[in-house]
């Protein structure tokens, strides 16, 4: 008999403040990027509380372009 082990992975939930600290983006920039579809969407964890999934934030970070040289004229997100 083969027994399959069910593994549950729990995704870490982050507040907007934590996402801001993790990404270096202001909360208003996060809101602008979300409105334009350029940032992971928040999820409603409970009434009055929205969270972001850490895995989705990390995946988004990996999609950012690499900048070579002078970053003072990097394209705006």
UniProtKB/TrEMBL annotation:
TM spans (from-to): none
Species for this entry: Hyphomicrobium album
Protein name as it appears in the record: AlpA family phage regulatory protein
Pfam family, one: Phage_AlpA
InterPro entries xref list: AlpA, DNA-bd_dom_put_sf, WH-like_DNA-bd_sf
